[in-house]
Amino acid sequence: MDRKVILYIASSLDGYIAKPNDNLDFLSIVEKEGEDYGYASFIKSVDTVVLGRKTYDWIIAHVPEFHHADKKTYIITRTARPDEGNITFYTEDLKDLILKLKSETGKNIFIDGGAEIVNELLKENLIDEFVISIIPILVGDGVRLFKDGRPEQKLTLISTKQFETGLTQLHYKRIDN
Questions:
Q1: Cβ atoms of residues 3 and 102 within 8 Å
Q2: Can you tell me the distance from the alpha carbon of 45 to that of 61, in angstroms, rounded to the nearest whole number?
Q3: By the 8 A CB rule, do 170 and 157 touch?
Q4: DSSP E strand boundaries for the chain
Q5: Residue 76 phi, psi dihedral angles, 5° rounding
Q6: Helix 115-123 and helix 94-103: axis angle, to 10°?
Q7: How many other CB atoms are found less than 10 A from the CB of residue 161?
Q8: Percentage of the chain lying above the pLDDT 90 cut
């Protein structure tokens, strides 16, 4: 089982991935021509993407085309829908899906959000690595990246990168107990 489950996500310094009403405008403060914060390199290391239906709906509403169309993608949802190309609308148990994917041969598995998916996976200790880009802002309210009520998990720091825009990227790996 050498496939890793990697959370790659941006957060405000105070731990929010969205402001109220799923407002992500604070992410634009670090936009810089020609800077992708390592995303292009990261995305080459994955062949499977897992995200929640709310995150998917936001992407579809704000981006001209789904940017993971070339990857096997699982949208975690409670409402069954027919598959669309490489996209599977998955209504079964998330833990079962992740364990199945990890047992298969392939590249890494990208957890693209949102908070419900992240926290369900944390409760099951199923995220292997965390790449969290900290946006230099305190938004004060919204959707928390990490919710209370999950087990403690020890991490080891792989790397930190700081960028001219003030964004700091933290890369951690879970220490298996």
A1: yes
A2: 26
A3: yes
A4: 5-12, 16-18, 46-52, 72-76, 87-90, 108-111, 129-135, 143-144, 155-162, 168-174
A5: -85, 120
A6: 70
A7: 13
A8: 88
Chain segment 75-109, per-residue pLDDT in tens = 999 999 999 999 999 999 999 999 999 999 999 99
| Whether this model's pTM surpasses 0.85 | yes
- Gap between the Cα atoms of 27 and 46, Å rounded: 23
Under the banding of pLDDT at 50, 70 and 90, the label for residue 67 is confident
Query: 111 has which bridge partners?
Result: 7, 50
CB atoms within 10 A of CB 101: 17
Position 155: which residue type? Answer: L
Name the residue type at position 129.
E
Token duo for residue 99:
């364990």
Is the Cβ–Cβ distance between 57 and 51 less than 8 Å? no
Distance, in Å, from the CA atom of 57 to the CA atom of 45, rounded to the nearest integer, reads 24
